[in-house]
Amino acid sequence: MKISNRVLEMQESPVRKLVPIATRVKKQGKKVYHLNIGQPDIKTPEVFMDAINKYDTSVIKYSFSQGEPILIDAIRNFFKRDGIIFNENNVLITNGGSEAITFSTIAMCDPGDEILIPEPFYTNYNGFTGEVNVNLVPITTLAKDGFHLPKKEDIVKLITPKTKAILFSNPGNPTGTILRRDEMEILAEIAIENDLYIISDEVYRGMAFDGLEALSMGCIEGIDDRLVIIESVSKRYSACGARIGAICSHNEDLIKNILKLCQARLCVATLEQIGAAALYSLPTEYTEGIKNEYQARRDIVFETLSNIDGVVCEKPTGAFYVVVKLPVDDAEKFIIWMLEEFTLDNETIMLSPAEGFYGTEGLGKDEARIAYVLNTEDMKRAMLILEKGLEAYNQK
Ligand SMILES: Cc1ncc(COP(=O)(O)O)c(C=O)c1O
């Protein structure tokens, strides 16, 4: 039977495609430290389950297509802390940030349209846009510039009549880069001058190190009608499996139209929304705590990487990822070799090949993404395994 070209043309997730190899070696008894996927090990705050357990209902009903009012209010209050005021019609609850990005793409673009995106970028953006035949046009950023944006004119020259939006994550996955206010203002200027939407993916907001702050795009003036902010409980609240995200925008016409997509998929899981409302109501000290934990992990990773011959990387300042240039020709081959051939006392690590995070052919072949999502002891061990593995690989 014929399979659609749309699906055939989609890439396999580079984060997940090596998982069968990891599963096989684990069955053979090898321990694998997973640094390949952004699945934090931090405990989901207890308020999540407490709120669900206290929820008094005899029937798990469909929720509203827009989402549970208690969660919408909690998200509005979360933004209010930064002076960003959303009314109750400005927020739509989605199945994770993932669905929020897909729905925003569908509402802003027709098939064949283009979205500008700084690369390397979160690889699933390819899926969210590719499945609706929208093309991502990469704005290349470089490790030597800390993956900060190039000059305005270099971005503007990528715009065509088909360009409908600029999409980015801040803090960045996979780079860990935090955009400066002046960069955000330039993106806003470009969007205003070229009548583009902005999709600001803020699922890692709050995870900013070294005293830096990841500003919400909602703090930048003059773009209310063209800005969509993507939210999620997955990372900040360590609740990836809850599958709760949100679209937040002052553009009520856009929201009204995205609501049609929400209605077509009926609703988001009711109980998880109740739990998520409790997460968004946690005080800011909660985020401070996890920020310190991730900063300690970042320090371990960066210190080890800085001492390995031939490894090149910039110190990430946010989220929980770092992109590293490895002293190998092909990072994917090295990652597979680490899984299949290498052990340190029957333990190994799994990284993500970074090539799939680039839109430009040929970039990232010798790079990997490390997600520092394990506790400090495990991170130390995993980084030692990486160091020994590279040594052994290059002596083959
Ligand atoms: C930058 C970014 N945006 C969105 C998502 C999607 O998150 P979720 O659908 O779990 O909210 C992820 C997940 O890793 C991500 O890294």
Protein structure class: alpha/beta
| Record field, number of beta strands | 12
Low-pLDDT windows of residues: none
CATH superfamily of the largest domain: Type I PLP-dependent aspartate aminotransferase-like (Major domain)
Mass-distribution shape: globular
- Bound compounds: pyridoxal-5'-phosphate
Order the strands across the largest sheet as they lie in space: 2-8-7-6-5-3-4
Distance between the termini: 45 Å
What portion of residues belong to β-strands? 15-25%
Give helix % range.
25-40%
Number of helices: 13
How would a crystallographer describe the biggest sheet? 7 strands, mixed
The helix/strand series, from N terminus to C terminus, equals HHEHHEHEHEHEHEEEHHHEHEEEH
Which CATH architecture of the largest domain is right?
3-Layer(aba) Sandwich
Mean pLDDT: 95
Description:
Helix 6 links the parallel strand 3 and strand 4. Helix 3 crosses helix 10 and helix 5 packs across helix 9 (252-264). Helices cover 37% and strands 15% of the residues. It has 2 domains: 5-43 and 285-394, Aspartate Aminotransferase, domain 1 (Alpha-Beta Complex), CATH 3.90.1150; 47-282, Type I PLP-dependent aspartate aminotransferase-like (Major domain) (Aspartate Aminotransferase, domain 2). The chain has helices spanning 5-8, 19-27, 47-54, 69-80, 96-108, 124-130, 152-156, 181-193, 252-264, 270-280, 284-306, 331-340, 376-394; strands at 31-34, 91-95, 114-119, 135-140, 163-169, 197-201, 227-232, 244-248, 321-325, 347-350, 352-353, 367-371. It is built from 13 helices and 12 strands. It has a 7-stranded mixed beta sheet, with helices on both faces. A 3-stranded antiparallel beta sheet has the order 9-12-11, with helices on one face. The longest helix is centred in the last third of the chain and has 23 residues, at 284-306. It starts with a helix and ends with a helix. The protein is α/β, with parallel strands linked by helices and 396 residues long. Residues 38, 96-98, 122, 169, 173, 201, 203, 232, 234, 240, 245 line the site of pyridoxal-5'-phosphate.
